[in-house]
Amino acid sequence: MNPKEMNSSWDDTLKGNFTFQFVQIEILLAQDQIFNTLNENNKTELLKEAARKYEVKKSTNEFSDFSEGPSILIAGRILDKRNKLQDLKGKMTTESIEKFLLTGSADNKEIF
Known about the structure:
By secondary structure, this protein is mostly helical. The chain contains six helices and no strands. The chain has a domain at 13-21 and 40-105. It has helices at 12-29, 32-35, 40-58, 65-81, 86-91, 94-103. The longest helix has 19 residues, at 40-58.
């Protein structure tokens, strides 16, 4: 899926359906049951792809925080399992980060 395929001329229903497809797929990919089946190369590719999707989503006004969050959730969970969030956890409340990694719900967008 490519977030650049979002067409600003679509009505709100089409835009909502398009963004919700991303949310559904990314939430599935963020689950341990899926994540644990991937080898390290696949995890690295998934991390890169999630980062690319997030960058495109945040560069347009068509995607909300709700639809950007799952891309960050994928990246966050991969990085957390690789113990790469220590610097971030030192800058922010660990409780907020842990809540996001567990639920996908962010207290504020600063986590992104």
